[in-house]
Amino acid sequence: MILADVLSGLVETDTDLLLAINGWRAEWADYFMYAFSGKWIWVPLYAAILYVIVRNLHWKVAIGCVVAIALTIVFADQVGATVIRPVVCRLRPANLENPVSEFVQIVNGYRGGRYGFPSCHAANTFGLAFFLFYLFRNRALNWFIMLWAVVTCYSRSYLGVHYPGDLLVGAFVGFVGASLCYWLFSRLCKYRRKESYEHIYVPIWVGGITISGILAYALIRAML
């Protein structure tokens, strides 16, 4: 009974947080969050990260690093989508079968798939963020990539396709995947961090330009 009451309270709080995030609306924010939540928009950022890895690591270690990052994403995505979701079967807030959907505002008709626990967006972005945190331990890059992951997660609740609880659990799955894959990578490839890395700020600049472009696009669309 106590456990049921605790779970009920957590679900109620989760729903209240979702409606608070989703309820704050601005036309420019609709465009911004929808674009920010996209996948292909971040290809330049991924390319910049790859450039820094190739630039600073021996080619054999760089290949091992790229494979480890790929495994981190696969682990995060599959644990969330294939292992946990079919067991928990928690409907997305915007799913029309969910009673709370009548209170959820959506953008561009986007409702996502059927189930949303945990969030694969959160698992993937935080998986990448934690792996880079372990890999470089550069303060500026750490702050940027973690903030990028947080805003990505916020956009998912803003769009009404994930509860905050989905995002927290997804972030934890990403953390576990990154920790495991980095541990294997560092031992198999005998990777040791350096005191400094060449062009380490390239992902920050590329990511910053991308975000500025998204913001400019959102503001212009809102004014039209």
Automatic annotation (TrEMBL):
InterPro entries assigned to the protein according to its UniProt record, in alphabetical order: PAP2/HPO, PAP2/HPO_sf
Domain Phosphatidic acid phosphatase type 2/haloperoxidase: 63-182
EC number: 3.6.1.27
Keywords in alphabetical order: Hydrolase, Membrane, Transmembrane, Transmembrane helix
Entry-linked Pfam families: PAP2 (PF01569)
Membrane keyword on record: yes
GO molecular function, one term: undecaprenyl-diphosphatase activity
TM region(s), chain numbering: 31-54, 61-84, 115-136, 143-161, 167-188, 200-220
Protein name (Swiss-Prot/TrEMBL): Phosphatase PAP2 family protein
Species the sequence originates in: Bacteroides stercoris
The gene coding this protein: ybjG
